[in-house]
Design goal:
The protein is built from eleven helices and 13 strands. The protein is of the alpha/beta class.
Length: 322
């Protein structure tokens, strides 16, 4: 792998999800669908399906679920040569509950002693990371253990040293970390990233502001220059320091199936535009397109398109429907 070149290398917490196949309380569910879960997994799979070369860092258990993860990700065409099988801890899991067809999903996580918590700076191979055009350090790793957080910080330092593009989604999780601690951890990383892609609520909480405009203004004042604020069906705001805010609407979908993973896939679509040298407004539009495809199937990335499908959709030549 010493001479290989990648478009994107990501590092994240990879788990296995078990999604209830019936509606109602989880205690009543009897049948489940199994799939790979994790923000970096979703992001990289979206990019790989668009035709980009990707590599993945993680730790999974030396168990059947860990083998399921690496086999699936490898099957998507992503290099997993730096993903380690850890014999000391099991692969993390989460279980997805759906109460009604109209309600959103709820996830129950079992990750506190997972193999990914053993990720550490020594796992981050500088020679490998430096081969990528874009680096994606998953924010979730900053919550799960001190060693994983330090691995993320090392990945940032490598990318800055090699003048690589850093894409960062804060993925605020107040069930795992207080907002005060999240600010202390994530704002310094956001200041180092090339592109920051938070949700609207996330940015307002991190910046301690009551509305999105003042939150963006505060972020810019802290040196966070290129921000894309995600609002799902509400579209996105492209906020580049020194320029007017640009509100870019999302696509109207007749019968979306599941929003799970759509935000990660949006970031993948946006990154695809960056890699192709598109204007940032077009990059956001690509993000909307990939995010829209992802909502048209159960599972976080299962509906993600090829580049040909995405281009046809964006050109208005093909409707995504179900």
């Amino acid at each position: 792998m010493a001479t290989a070149m990648f478009d994107v290398i990501g590092m994240g917490e990879s788990m296995v999800a078990f999604e209830a196949q019936s509606f109602g309380p989880l205690r009543e569910a009897e049948d489940f669908k199994k799939w790979v879960g994790g923000a970096a997994d979703n992001y990289l799979i979206a990019l790989a399906r668009l035709g980009f070369s990707c590599g993945f860092f993680s730790r999974v258990g030396d168990d059947e679920l860990g083998r399921f993860i690496t086999r699936w990700i490898r099957g998507e065409g992503i290099d997993v040569s730096r993903t380690l099988a850890d014999r000391s801890k099991a692969t993390g899991i989460f279980i997805v509950e759906r109460r009604t067809p109209e309600s959103n999903f709820r996830c129950y996580f079992y990750r506190s002693n997972s193999a990914a918590t053993n990720l550490c700076p020594d796992d981050v191979d500088e020679d490998y990371v430096s081969q990528a055009r874009v680096v994606y350090p998953e924010a979730m790793l900053t919550y799960i253990s001190d060693s994983a957080r330090r691995a993320v910080e090392k990945m940032f330092d490598i990318a800055l040293r090699h003048k690589q593009t850093i894409v960062f989604d804060p993925n605020l999780r107040l069930t795992m970390c207080s907002v005060e601690d999240s600010r202390a951890i994530h704002i310094p990383l956001m200041q180092k990233a090339t592109y920051v892609l938070p949700g609207a609520d996330e940015l307002q909480m991190l910046m301690e502001r009551p509305d999105i405009e003042s939150a963006i203004e505060r972020a810019h004042s802290l040196g966070i220059g290129k921000i894309v604020v995600k609002s799902g069906a509400g579209g996105a705001i492209l906020a580049v320091a020194g320029q007017e805010l640009k509100r870019i609407p999302s696509f109207t979908l007749k019968k979306p199936v599941s929003p799970m993973g759509a935000g990660d896939c949006f970031v993948g679509g946006f990154t695809a535009g960056v890699l192709r040298g598109q204007p940032l407004e077009t990059c956001v539009r690509w993000g909307h397109g990939v995010g829209a495809f992802s909502t048209m199937a159960y599972g976080p990335f299962h509906g993600c398109p090829s580049m040909d499908e995405l281009m046809k959709y964006l050109a208005g030549k093909e409707e995504v429907s179900r």
